[in-house]
Amino acid sequence: MDKQEFLEVYRHSLAHILAKAVIEIYGKEVQYAIGPQIDDGCYYDFLIPASVGEADFAAIEEKMREIIKRREPWTRQEVSKDEALKLFEGQKFKTELINDLPEGEIITIYKTGDDFTDLCRGPHVENSQELMNVAYRIRSVSGAYWRGDEKRDSLQRIYLYAFPSRDELKAHLKFIQEALERDHKKIGQELSLFMFDETAPGMPYWLPRGWRMYQELLKFSRELQEKHGYTEIAAPLVNNKKLWLISGHWAHYLNNMFIVPGVEGFLRADSEVADVYPDIEDADAAPRKVMLGKHTVIYNREAVDTMAAKPMNCPNAMMTYKRTVHSYKELPIRYSEYDVLHRKEKSGQMNGLFRVQEFRQDDDHTFVMESQIEDEIADIIAIADEIYATFGVTYRAELSTRPDDFMGDIEVWNRAEAALKRILDNKYGEGGYEVNEGDGAFYGPKIDLQIKDALGREWQCGTIQLDFQLPHNFGLTYQDRDGSMQMPVVIHRAIYGSLERFIGIIIENFKGAFPFWLSPYQVGIVPIRTEHNEYAARVAAALAEAGVRVEVDDTDSNMKEKIKKYKNLKDPYILVLGDKEAAENTVSVNVRGSNKQLQGVPLDKFVKLCEKLNSERSLELAENAD
Questions:
Q1: Host H or E run for residue 480
Q2: How far apart are CA 172 and CA 601, in angstroms?
Q3: Which one of the listed residues 120, 314, 461, 610 is annotated catalytic?
Q4: Which of 20, 63, 365, 549 is catalytic?
Q5: 4 given a catalytic annotation
Q6: Is 556 helix (H, G, I), strand (E, B) or coil?
Q7: Radius of gyration in angstroms for the set of CA atoms belonging to the chain, rounded to a whole number
Q8: Which among 492, 501, 562, 592 is annotated as catalytic?
Q9: Is 342 a catalytic residue?
Q10: Which position among 275, 362, 363, 571 bears the catalytic label?
Q11: Is 446 in the active site?
Q12: pLDDT digits (tens, 9 = 90+) for 213-240
């Protein structure tokens, strides 16, 4: 077996050992559901007549060791549906799974020793002794609904870490500890960057400190795009259903959209009230025909009044382009957009800032002639290179090709995919990127940029999508050199991707100790006594005039407490001001992450240092004023 097969077989087998151990400890009344292997181990779902907690982990692990030491054989058997139902009589979850299998399906079971049988495709080990040297540890217990349905049984899910050796388990536990220390949800709370509330699930509240950082990211993006010829637009948050029908999102994305109901009541996903085909009519709905782009759309009152919060900006950019006639001389036209987007997610899928229901992205829709595609995408990749380098992250590219539910002409798709492949070959060389067959957007192939974080995890942030379909749907044109009307190609593009997700990544990358230019507040000022407040105000004013974000604690609190507060908030520099500094127009500087204190730094010199760090967007703090 290769390493991946080895891990899957051993981890899956340990899930069976875990289930057997739980049954031996808690009795035959335990209902056991499913137990798959996962990336770092396995889990098993149970209905147990007791609440399992951390205090029980050692006993379960010891029972697992005992079972493994019995060196019991594992036996695979093929059984009929009736035989399987008899074997699992009284086990309601297994019974349900068996009844759901189609007639004639080969049913396999695995026996571990003589007293434990599980419904499973396998493969597994041949004897428990093969697991003697595998290192494992119970990770946690959490709640899980049977088959992910909150109306079904609530189960206890026991997670297990499992690795081929103790050293690998130890290394993984160290990685997990580091990940916990970097957890953006924890750091975000400690630094007062953002919060969540049950009244708006998956929709972050940005607190003053976090919003300052958010604005710096937007500022950086806008400055860079300005240099590359982008223009910025803004469009409505809520749009009529007819817009989403033209774009194709209604057919492909409805389940992820927040719907604002029409006058006829809530719209049901399985009940269309409009169609792009002119021969479909519903007399009871008093339909009307309206030309939208190249399509005749028939809709009734519900269709007219039904609205949806936008999950993406594409249709609005199409409408913005369509407002006037364009010449080939104007292309490329680049419409940048940072509007709020909403995408409906299942509650179990949301994860801090990494997966939310409300977010912004550094979106852009560029309208080009086919002959401009390669130069434009090369420029986009140059922007991505600069942005990611500023944050000290690396990335790799992936090409995603035509999905099964694609829209449009297959020949157009082939042409688009060939263009993206040429671009990637020129940039990274043949084989220097991955190809994800069938993972493109429904309207076109795409290049995804996967960035690597400080823990080695990969995140899809940037995306460059080539689209021949939406211009067709919206009837977009430009006048070519010979006076003929041609259809432009649209490039959808984001570099940060979701700003929320990107901020979550950089919070964890920097452990909340952000580069100077990105820090919510860059300088914390601590007057030693209240008589130094006047000088502290002058220092703050000089820094603010230079564009430095500064905060002053001019209360009568203890100096050490003030310094500790700013250290906890991870301000890059803390200035301590007393008689000497006020008399000499200097500052004493505590540098974050250093035991150094720079004494007697002239104020004007410190201001210039801060200006330099901001203008260069440096990753490192200067530890001297030179």
A1: none
A2: 45
A3: 314
A4: 365
A5: no
A6: coil
A7: 30
A8: 492
A9: no
A10: 363
A11: yes
A12: 999 999 999 999 999 999 999 999 999 9
| Pair 113, 99: CB distance under 8 Å | no
Q: Which of 343, 402, 493, 562 is catalytic?
A: 343
pLDDT per residue as tens digits for the range 330-350: 999 999 999 999 999 987 788
- Antiparallel, parallel or unpaired: β 274-275 and 31-32: unpaired
Marked catalytic residue, from 16, 446, 493, 501: 446
State the helix-helix crossing angle for 57-69 and 3-26, rounded to 10 degrees: 110
In 10 A of CB 582, how many CB atoms?
Answer: 18
Residue 249: active-site member: no
The pLDDT value given to residue 109: 95
Residue 219 among the catalytic residues: no
Mind listing the domains of the chain with CATH numbers?
A: 3-182 (3.30.980.10), 211-261+306-509 (3.30.930.10), 516-616 (3.40.50.800)
According to DSSP, residue 39 is labeled T
Active-site residue, 120 included: no
Ranges of the chain with pLDDT below 70: 1-2, 262-304, 625-626
Per-residue pLDDT at 301: 46
Cα gap 317→268, rounded to integer Å? 27
Q: Residue 353: phi, psi to the nearest 5?
A: -85, -10
Instruction: Reply yes or no on whether 314 is catalytic.
Output: yes
> What does the block give as tokens for 318?
């199409």
Annotated catalytic residue: which of 91, 361, 465, 522?
Answer: 361
Our CA dihedral for 404, 407, 409, 412, rounded to 10 degrees, sits at -90
Residue 206, C-beta contacts closer than 8 angstroms, at least 6 positions apart: 193, 194, 214
Position 284 scores a pLDDT of 42
346-371 pLDDT per residue, tens: 877 889 999 999 999 999 999 999 88
Task: Encode burial over 27-44: b for 16+ CB neighbours within 10 A, e otherwise.
Answer: eeebbbbbbebeebbbbb
Quote the DSSP letter at residue 544.
H
Helix (H/G/I), strand (E/B), else coil: 199? coil
For tokens 């759901």, the residue is: 100
Taking Cα atoms as reference points, which of 142, 145, 116, 153 lies closest to residue 15? 116
Give the number of C-alpha atoms closer than 13 A to the C-alpha of residue 323, restricted to the C-beta side: 6
Q: What is the phi/psi pair of residue 476, to 5°?
A: -80, 145
DSSP state of 265: B
Asked if residues 59 and 51 have their Cβ atoms less than 8 Å apart, the reply is: no
pLDDT in tens, 15-27: 999 999 999 999 9
